[in-house]
Task: structure prediction
Amino acid sequence: MALNWLKKKKKAEDKEPANRENGAPTTAEQYPEEDSGRQGMQEGGILNDDRPVRQEQQAGKGKDRSRPSSRKGLFARLKQGLAKTRKILTSDIDDLFRGRRALDDEMLEQLEELLITSDIGVRTTMELVAAVAKKARKIDGPEALKQVLKEEILKLFEGLEPEKQPAAAPKPEVVMVVGVNGVGKTTTIGKLAAKATAEGKSVLIAAADTFRAAAIEQLAIWSQRAGAEIIKHRENADPAAVAFDSVHAAMARGTDLVLIDTAGRLHTRVNLMEELKKIRRSVAKNLEDAPHQILLVLDATTGQNALSQAKIFNEALGVSGLVLTKLDGTAKGGIVVSICNGLKIPLRYIGVGEGIDDLQVFDPARFVEALF
Ligand SMILES: Nc1nc2c(ncn2[C@@H]2O[C@H](COP(=O)(O)OP(=O)(O)OP(=O)(O)O)[C@@H](O)[C@H]2O)c(=O)[nH]1
Ligand SMILES: [Mg+2]
Result:
């Protein structure tokens, strides 16, 4: 039996990167003008990125995102976002058992396909199917199978909790937010700032994406919505200088939290990773242990591509936590499982919409409940 699904694994691997057989939109479908750049990213070439900026961002406008996307509770919104994955994992698993009672080899193969279709990834799927196969005798119906899957998925999240915060948070706490262009860095900073100000913290945002004026403008709008301060220089200023000034100002003002927005692409000459390292160094010049966190933002709709981005950023910068955005809509929730299991970096937040309160602290137990 194991041989059967190992044989199929090769086939699945050939399928997976393109993400097309499982109905997921490709990058080209979502951002036609950006596909070549993302390709470049995969090949390690983030540098040659002079693609046009999406118009809405350029204008720094677009629809008002300050309002919550719905009045529903957090769990309901998460469930809504994961509807697509839940269909695969629930009704399709029910179908597996139609007319059959015990889990046989053929069903295990079908389960493997289902899991891969939900973006769980080949490696993680193999681990899950192997775990299910071991317990096959006890699985006498779809509910029992779902229960085993829930337990096994939860196990994959174990040991991935973020390091315990020291009793007294560093002041200012400096958080650098990184990621390729368009993943949702600036939006996430707006949401994080709003969360922190709602908790009574003072927040200063550093506009260290100086690549284009619209980026600074977009961040200024978010800082206003969130009730945070902003430090900005002119377009094309040195991002490291903006970060340095921000930490300096935060120290002088007694600010609680500094959030540093960074570019996802730069002019062709400049190496993004080198620039980000420079920002990191400039922050440490002011405050020894800073940045206290480097959050990498990943777009869930890019599927397995997010994994390769994370590897590149982690190798260059050392990422302390992940934010997975756009889990609402087209994304498949399985990518969360795949990323957590594949990277061993804690997933801190998930983005479930464009509104200011559409950021949730990632809670594995709640996530698994919403998945089935
Ligand atoms: N549906 C949805 N959209 C999101 C989410 N997070 C961000 N977005 C949208 O994604 C688009 C890009 O977001 P930005 O925050 O500008 O992304 P960025 O990483 O700062 O982009 P660059 O500055 O160009 O590198 C915007 O239209 C956001 O509204 C999310 O959780 N769900
Ligand atoms: Mg941005």
Summary: The radius of gyration is 21 Å. Residues 57, 65, 179, 181-187, 209, 215, 264, 325-326, 328-329, 351-354, 358 surround guanosine-5'-triphosphate (ligand 1) (CB under 6 Å). The first strand starts at residue 173 and ends at 178.
